[in-house]
Design brief:
The structure holds 2 protein chains of 2 kinds. Chain A is built from 10 helices and no strands. Chain A has helices spanning 3-12, 21-44, 50-53, 57-80, 88-93, 95-111, 117-122, 126-150, 156-176, 184-209. The chains are: A mainly alpha, B mainly alpha.
């Protein structure tokens, strides 16, 4: 077939009725958060002492970390799905939650006696952390991967992994409202482990399903 | 031009694709010159990229320059193509010899990959794509000939083009 003939076929095809990709992405994030939120409020719920917790700095700080992770990863994800859009600044933005958490751990190590370090790191909810974050991330991850399929990610595995990061950011934001362990040492140990599981799933699913 | 095309101006879209093609052809020829002995025709890349541009045109952010978007798609498809060629290099020599006589035909602006992909579609999809491309029929003419409604032909054509892109994709795995 000659190229001019192929162009005939493309031009005859109906005009694109697709929404711009930003809308698709925003819709996916909203829907994913809705799914994770419903699961959270129906099956998990706030921690019992939520009234006092909202006045505690370490508790609120968890949300600063998880929300900055979600924001940076969602931004990077939507850029990876559009060919030719620079991603450098947004990949640096992913360092923000890491740096914030590292500083918090440093502060904890300086402000508390060494004898409390081990209990604070082990906490009492590590098993919940490792199961509930991935569980809550399933909905957002599915929504984000479906959105990425509408896009054109030139690096399928990486895009899937970043979608996993974004989904964990959303999931961890909800989970943090249930978890009674607020110590930065705990957060810096168990949350990343849970996130890593979701990222690995995102990478695998991205490599398999995001080629176009 | 693509802005107008996305808004539904078919003539603008035709001009846009026509204007992009020489650039794609030059890029594809450079890619091939850098990888001697890969076989195939640069026009195969040109056609695959045109199809990708068509199906992914909503991912272009209209506030940005179009150049990098087209370049990234072209690069991505060229890599797929070389991967495909790399794997084909391992197929038995008999198959290659069988394909050889057809080689000189694919001169100039004609490509053979697309015909190979078309051959894998179901007959109706192949028929619809051939009707609007090679024969240059309009949606209405195809609808009359196949006794379908125009809407059904539009849907079928769009699905057929997506199926065609999926063929390229599974071939590159």
């Amino acid at each position: 077939m000659r190229t001019e003939e192929l162009i005939n076929a493309l031009v005859t095809d109906e005009p694109s009725t697709r929404k711009r990709f930003d809308f698709i992405m925003a819709f996916a994030v909203a829907l994913g958060a809705l799914v994770a939120g419903s699961l959270f409020f129906v099956a998990i719920g706030f921690r019992p002492d939520i009234d006092q917790a909202v006045r505690s700095v370490p508790f609120l700080f968890k949300f600063v970390v998880t929300l900055s992770l979600a924001t940076a990863a969602i931004g990077l994800c939507s850029r990876l799905a559009r060919p030719g859009v620079p991603v450098k600044e947004w990949s640096y933005a992913l360092a923000i939650p890491v740096i914030l958490l590292a500083l918090a751990v440093l502060a904890e190590l300086m402000l508390t006696p060494p004898s409390t370090w081990a209990p604070s790191l082990i906490g009492s909810n590590s098993r919940f952390c490792l199961t509930l974050i991935p569980l809550l991330a399933i909905g957002p991850l599915a929504c984000l991967l479906l959105a990425l399929r509408q896009g054109a990610p030139t690096r399928p595995g990486l895009s899937g992994a970043v979608a996993g990061l974004a989904a964990s950011g959303i999931a961890a934001t909800f989970y943090a409202a249930n978890c009674t362990d607020d110590a930065p040492l705990f957060v810096a140990t168990w949350y990343p482990l849970a996130v890593a599981m979701v990222v690995a799933v995102g990478y695998a699913m991205g490599s398999l399903s995001l080629r176009w | 031009m693509l802005r107008g095309a996305i808004a539904g101006d078919a003539a603008a879209y035709h001009r846009f694709l026509g204007a992009v093609t020489p650039y794609l052809r030059a890029t594809a020829r450079r890619q091939f010159a850098r990888m001697p002995g890969t076989g195939g025709d640069p026009e195969d890349i040109v056609q695959e990229v045109l199809l990708a541009i068509h199906l992914k045109r909503h991912t272009w952010d209209q506030a940005r320059a179009i150049g990098p978007w087209i370049a990234a798609i072209t690069r991505n498809k060229a890599i797929d193509m070389l991967r495909r060629r790399g794997r084909q290099a391992e197929i038995p020599i008999e198959d290659v010899i069988e394909q050889l006589p057809a080689e000189p035909v694919s001169a100039g602006e004609e490509a053979r990959d697309v015909d190979r992909m078309l051959a894998m579609l179901n007959p109706r999809q192949r028929d619809i794509i051939r009707s609007v491309s090679v024969n240059g029929y309009s949606i209405r003419e195809v609808a009359d000939r196949l006794e379908m409604t125009e809407g059904a032909v539009r849907v079928a054509l769009h699905r057929a083009l997506k199926a065609l892109a999926a063929r390229y994709r599974s071939d590159a795995k």
